[in-house]
Specification:
Layout: H1 7-37, H2 40-56, H3 68-86, H4 106-125, H5 128-139, H6 144-151, H7 155-180
Helix pairs in contact: 1-2, 1-3, 1-5, 2-3, 3-6, 4-7, 5-6, 5-7, 6-7
């Protein structure tokens, strides 16, 4: 594919936009992938690959209703799915990197760890689609329309899935809380 005379300028603008998105969204993409793959170290490696792949595909990128931010999350989603497919034999759920150290006392740290473990266990009981929606909307900060474009669904479907996921999560956490207090 041969580029026109304005192609170098257009590529430069895309590179600047991508650099800005890296600054703004790298950590969100890491958190999204970490939720999917279960380990922050692997998520950081995959997030770096997301941006490498984006740079390689930059010339082919055209907005067509999918903002660059949502495009990056689509790449991240696909890479996480590929990673899980390749590593399906070793599914882990990790809460590493969370703010347990911020607790003011050892008792507070233990209570926080128990709450985080309960939340991780409840998240693991959601469907993969529900986890994806929550990760894109809450961790990724995407709008329902942007998350829908990443997942191939409408914005309305994403809002319904998010509502259902939050209701399920609430029920699971309440049930777990009742079991711990018995």
């Amino acid at each position: 594919m041969r580029m026109g005379a304005g192609a170098p300028e257009a590529r430069r603008r895309k590179e600047e936009a991508l650099a800005g998105l890296f600054e703004t969204h790298y950590e969100r993409i890491v958190r999204y992938i970490a939720l999917r793959v279960g380990a922050r170290g692997e998520a950081e490696d995959l997030a770096s690959q997301v941006f490498l792949r984006a740079v390689e595909a930059l010339d082919a990128y055209q907005e067509r209703g999918l903002p660059m931010q949502a495009w990056l999350f689509r790449i991240a989603h696909n890479m996480a799915v590929d990673f899980l497919r390749r590593n399906s034999h070793r599914r882990t759920v990790s809460i590493e990197g969370l703010a347990i150290a911020a607790a003011t006392s050892p008792e507070g740290a233990v209570a926080l760890r128990l709450e985080l473990e309960a939340a991780a266990a409840a998240m693991a009981q959601l469907t993969p689609a529900q986890r994806d929606v929550l990760a894109l909307r809450v961790l990724g900060g995407l709008t329902s329309e942007q998350a829908g474009k990443v997942l191939g669904k409408s914005g309305g479907a994403v809002r319904e899935m998010q509502s259902s996921a939050l209701q399920s999560l609430r029920r699971l956490l309440e049930r777990g809380s009742e079991a711990r207090h018995v």
